[in-house]
Amino acid sequence: MKNNSHQDLVSNQRNVYNVIYETNYRTWRKSYMDLTKLTAYEIIEHRPLPDLKSEGALLRHKKSGARVLLISNDDENKVFNIGFRTPTTNSTGVPHIMEHTVLCGSEKFPTKDPFVELVKGSLNTFLNAMTYPDKTVYPVASCNEKDFQNLMDVYMDAVLHPNIYKHEEIFRQEGWNYHLEEADGELSYNGVVYNEMKGAFSSPDGVLDRMILNSLFPDTTYANESGGDPDVIPELTYEEYLNFHKTYYHPSNSFIYLYGNMDMTEKLDFIDKKYLSVFDSLHVDSEIQEQKPFDKMHDLVMEYPVAESESEENNSYLAYSVVTGNAMNSLECTAFDVLDYALLGAPGAPLKKALLDAEIGSDVYGSYEDGIRQTYFDVIAKGADPSRKEEFVSIIRRVLTEIVQNGIDPKALEAGINCMEFRYREADFSSYPKGLIYGLDILDNWLYDDEHPFAQVQLIPVFDKLKELKNQRYFEGLIQKYLLDNTHGSILTLNPSRGLTARRAKALEEKLAAHLASLNDEEKAEMVQKTVELERYQETPEDPETAKCIPMLKREDIRKEITPFTNEALDIDGSLFLYHEVPTNGIGYLDLMFDVKDLPAGTAISYGGTFASENDLRVATIPVGYADGYPRTLSNKGWVLIHGQKAPILGRVCMDQFMVDVTHIPDVKHGDEVTLIGRDGDEFISIETLGDMSGRFSYEFACDISKRVPRVYIKDGREWGDLTFFK
Known about the structure:
The chain is of the alpha+beta class. It folds into 3 domains: 37-286 and 531-547, Cytochrome Bc1 Complex, Chain A, domain 1, CATH 3.30.830.10; 298-430 and 452-498, CATH 3.30.830.10; 568-723, Beta Barrel (Lyase, Ornithine Decarboxylase, Chain A, domain 1), CATH 2.40.37. Helices cover 36% and strands 22% of the residues. It contains 21 helices and 28 strands. The strands form 8 sheets. Strands 1, 2, 3, 4, 5, 6, 7 and 10 form an 8-stranded mixed sheet that branches. Strands 11-15-12-14-13 form a 5-stranded mixed sheet, with helices on both faces. Strand 22 (639-642) and strand 23 (645-650) form a beta hairpin. Helix 13 packs antiparallel against helix 15.
């Protein structure tokens, strides 16, 4: 499907890019990504990506048919990903089980769990695999060249040459198995994915998300649970599971992604010679089909389990969901992100406010989902009375109708566009490499449209277009078309049910008991034997010689030199000004560092003025914020230690700083040591205390300390070294 409006926008963007950056681009392309010597690949598209200060290319491997997308730039955090379209016709969870099992040893790396060994000698910044409703992906990232090569090698071998054909135990361990220790014992189901999905199906939010997706697309792959329904997982046979790999885990059905500062030709040559060249191209029927529109909204009622101690009253979920086009229309998708903000997310958002004012639920939220072929928008009331379903729908339609008639608040639209654009430009994904997120976003379009694979990383002209359209009733038109006149949707009521878990457990127990009773002695003995064999397989220690196949970094593979970080020191009106020349994608950053200040009574402190002093105060600024992992929830209630005394936090914790009261602490001066966690004199702040105050588990608090914070390693009272990620 072509999206001409987006195509025109991109064309204009490229023209501007070529005019402004033509000379630099030519020089840069020669030094970064010279694809002229490639013979194993067909170059389909090669273009600048000014939004990312990068160069992109779309290739096709001639022999195997593999799709390959490249983004070359100066980012040292290199990313590799191989993904596959993995539609399914049932809820046995075969895509999810396959994701687990291919990582349990391969032809070249035959250990039972190569990744446990791999991470022992890896400097990876990301290592994982994920199953989605229509795709499965295997991304890795590293700043170390040798490490990146190792990770790429292990992952390619894992997905294309897994040991699943040699060891049925892998399927039984990770997927599901009958567990029977003795012939007259109790029969049960076991398996990593099976147990994982039992937990997932107990979460009401998870149940609701699945039911919405299933209800909107009942005739497509989205009607099924790709992760696996525990009631259905045991229907999957070993033969069906192997056939799934043979069908979909072929390079012709693959989407390979490389991002960052690397020799692309070298990497492509490696992938070709070591893996892709042994495969011949073939047709893989994996196209994700679209759901035909409904003649009328579907009305469904489902149940979710609650504990005996929980109330069923006013504990239901009401969901109003409508299909809103497809993922290939970048303009509409971005516009709906803005509408999500304007209608439900912004302060005083009209749709959320109307539902809360009517006390339809204890909480109201919604989302715009664009990670599948057909996108959808939903409005959800949590903690609702199911008898008020008609009122819930009526309020939504009334408010949306009024908005169409009277127009959307232009300030809300402008704020929404600016918010989305800022997030896009900043590309701050916390601890996740930006190249990883770019790659996953790209698949949201590329998976269904080979003609516009870069659409998700070319959004600046889209934001510019939306700024033009916001005063032309474009957004009101989208509401009318998709949210009011559209019959392709569902109204879902999810009710709590006490005892549902017990009833399901009883039914499963009876089902397994009946199955065991139907077996003869020989079949029971075989089942016991398989249980023993699986346990033996799991408990057998890894052969040390086999483990040596896993590539490990050596000391000489790690660069000793640190990346220099420079700034220009300026004197402006007697104040020190440090200027850093770094690419920020059009965003200007200004951090103001203040010394200790005496503030008069009534002064509002920090963003929003959530704290105003009743008395004269002495206030100090601490150069730490939520970007460093110090939680915003400690605003106005946490404290730090200075000179062995508690200094309470005043106002909000900001991105890079927060303020504390030091009125009662003598001799405080610029440069004094501040203790955030730990002991200072007789006072002590534990991580457990901060976790309780911030509403976080203490381990979560520790894990959120960002890479901006330098690490100093101490042993026997001596500093042994340090690690600073951004030097």
